[in-house]
Amino acid sequence: MLRLEGLDVYYGQIRALKDVSLEVRRGEIVALLGNNGAGKTTTLKTISGLLAPRQGRIHLEDRVLTGSPPHAVVGLGIGHVPEGRRIFNRLTVRENLIMGAFLRNDAGISDDLQRVFMLFPRLKERITQVAGTLSGGEQQMLAIGRALMGRPRLLLLDEPSMGLAPVLVEQIFDTIGAVNRQGTTILLVEQNAAMALSIAHRGYVLETGSVVLSGTAAELSENAEVRRAYLGE
Fold first, then answer.
1. Which structural domain, as residue segments, surrounds residue 168?
2. Per-residue 3-state assignment (H helix, E strand, C coil) for the chain
3. Is the pTM of this model over 0.90?
């Protein structure tokens, strides 16, 4: 479904991604693991059109995405939940969710709003609340719900568990699994490698901007380097 081929991405003179190639197949959850500064967020921003690669190509099925502006990428079915949530703090929960459907003019928006409320009942309870007053966990639910309102075929998730209590982390990951089972393909960036690999089908490990390991989730979970570096063993 999504294929990256030899991406080189720079911040000024600093090379952030070095010949990065990876694939996300339809229906999968693919985990992208790595330490801070490894290039995970840069990879997602490049897919979304927020950064332009100097070299390489991005393919969504039979279409070349490289060079497409962010709104065009969203229109082609890629949703992005950024690191730090980036919700609209002064808008209500409902207004944030409706903003996620800003490219749509079909009759299914109300149905999708109800789908988000089924996934995140707490958001329905907070529907008129100003988003900036929500808890961190509720803001993460809102960020995911907003992305789902665009009906993405592929969802990019950047550190969904960051700063959350363990019980909320489990809830967020259960929901990510449910979204995938409902038909959405997911590329997941996550420092909590154990949780990411528990729901992923496959994964890649980035180090200093390069892919150094790849395999099924089970293979990566059993890899000695991964266990030592990311699983605390």
1. 2-86+155-230
2. CEEEEEEEEEECCEEEEEEEEEEECCCCEEEEECCCCCCHHHHHHHHCCCCCCCEEEEEECCEECCCCCHHHHHHCCEEEECCCCCCCCCCEHHHHHHHCCCCCCCCCHHHHHHHHHHHCHHHHHCCCCEHHHCCHHHHHHHHHHHHHCCCCCEEEEECCCCCCCHHHHHHHHHHHHHHHHCCCEEEEECCCHHHHHHHCCEEEEEECCEEEEEEEHHHHHHCHHHHHHHCCC
3. yes
Six-digit token string for 224: 């000695």
In a domain, 116, yes or no: no
Within a domain: 226: yes
Task: Give the strand order in the sheet containing 55-60.
Answer: 14-24, 2-11, 55-60, 63-64
* CATH code (residue 184): 3.40.50.300
pLDDT in tens, 153-194: 999 999 998 888 888 888 899 999 999 999 999 999 998 899
